[in-house]
Amino acid sequence: MLVKIRLARHGSKKRPFYRIVVADNDFKRDGRFLEIVGTYNPLLDPAEVTVKKDRVKHWMDFGAKPSDTVNSILKKEGCFSNHSPA
Fold it and tell me: Which residue, 29, 31, 30, 47, is CA-closest to 39?
């Protein structure tokens, strides 16, 4: 089972809001997930990001790989930039 940390899109049309979720690679983008570990709101200036750093670290220790976008968000937040995306 390959686990990824990725964005799940929510919000209405042209008003995106994302949850940072831990999900199995086989699950759909906005479908099932294992845990919500943060949120990302790109509409605010600057973009609003909340991350549960302890839970992200927990999942990365168990082998979860962040997507490219989530990896860049984590780098901007100043946490876990040493993990490379898969």
Answer: 47
Q: What are the CA-CA distances from residue 69 to residues 23, 73 (Å)? A: 15, 6
- CATH fold for the domain made of 3-77: S16 Ribosomal Protein; Chain: A; (3.30.1320)
Q: Name 65's bridge partners.
A: 4
Entry pTM = 0.84
Question: pLDDT of 48-68, one tens digit each?
Answer: 999 999 999 999 999 999 999
